[in-house]
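This entry is set out below.
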Amino acid sequence: MKLETNLKHETLKQLGYTNFSVNNKTGEIIFTDNSVVFNEEEFNLKLEEVRQNNIDGAYKRKRALNYPSITDQLDALFHAGVFPPEMAAQIQAIKDKYPKPE
């Protein structure tokens, strides 16, 4: 239910609604401003779009959590010798100045 609540919250924000909450247990949308005109059809269409974007982006989030750190990636590229000579010299100077403890 937490994911569904978050998706509803994101959908409402994208549609420009403000002053609302979504009940975590029931999923009910509660507007704190009684003058809001809620378009349920528009909401449902946008909710499906937000759900699909969430599904489509899931692999990106999983990859990001499991990739080696940027530091490790850059260090591997340095050791593979793929940096331009000027960049490699700058990196080597820093490595020499602050050597890795034995």
Remarks:
- The chain has two domains: 2-66, 68-102.
- The chain has a mean pLDDT of 90.
- Residues 78 and 87 are 9 Å apart (CA to CA).
- Strands lie at 20-22, 29-31.
